[in-house]
Amino acid sequence: MERNSLYESGLLRGEFLPEVVAYYFKQWDNYSMPFHAHNQVEIMYVIEGHCNVETEGASLQLKKGDFIILDAEVPHRLLVEKGSPCRMLNIEFRFHERKGVFPSIKNIAEEDPAFARFLKMNSPYLLLKDANEVYPILKSLVLEMDERGKENLLMVHLLLSQLFIRMARLAVETIANEPEHQANMYVKQALMYLHENYDCDIQMKDIAADVNLHPGYLHRIFKKHTGLTVMEYLTSVRMEKAKMLLSETDIPLIEISDYIGINSRQYFSSLFKKHTHQTPVEYRKTAMHKKEFASWEKV
């Protein structure tokens, strides 16, 4: 027995598993798709560029990091402007009766309240903004299916469970507090960018470009959510990394600044002292003494 809609009540009564029936990466340009519908649920994720997805009642603009969940039998079409390519990942899935010991849709709903709420939204589509939490799961899922096919169903079902929970939490948060949630997503993206690129020469315009926001607006929402400006937060990240490198590695002092994206050793030293009340040399000596003392206590 199969279930096609995400909102069929039978999913919460029986033991059903999701089954991916189609998935593909595709770059679209100058494309106008006719209205059509699938007999399974579809996820359309924008990796690069922008596009429009039209349903019978709405025209929705998607850009990088946006994705739409279309329920089964919902008429829709994709529109991509000429000269503005859009790269997407599409996944289609349905549900079948459980075989094996994998967690069913009902099991997940019983353990995760957000997923239980998600299954009762009964919306023809959900447009959501990802803070790089959903796409890594989607990519891992399709690569797993490409590489191993049906050889490793355990990993596929674990990734599907993770995907459903992550999408459900995002959907619940979005609907509960749409304006605040969207700002929070931008801040999450900015934080991720800072933690992944603190070793580079980062400027405000680089961070704003990564999250597709005006620098001034990003500055305002970032300070509202974190209590710090973007550059204050970046400095705090760099100082924490410097403390770790000084205390836990043998990297020469003159190279530490390069590891955290500060080109001037003199500026790094003064900044470090301002934050820790010690010079880098003093901090490393103190850390070494603490380790020596700890080793003596163990003897």
From TrEMBL:
Keywords noted in UniProt: DNA-binding, Transcription, Transcription regulation
Coiled coil: none
Record SMART domains: HTH_ARAC
PROSITE patterns for the chain: HTH_ARAC_FAMILY_2
SUPFAM superfamilies recorded: Homeodomain-like, RmlC-like cupins
Molecular function via GO: DNA-binding transcription factor activity; sequence-specific DNA binding
HTH araC/xylS-type domain segment(s): 188-286
PANTHER family, A to Z: ARAC-FAMILY TRANSCRIPTIONAL REGULATOR, HTH-TYPE TRANSCRIPTIONAL ACTIVATOR RHAS
Name of the protein described by the UniProt record: AraC family transcriptional regulator
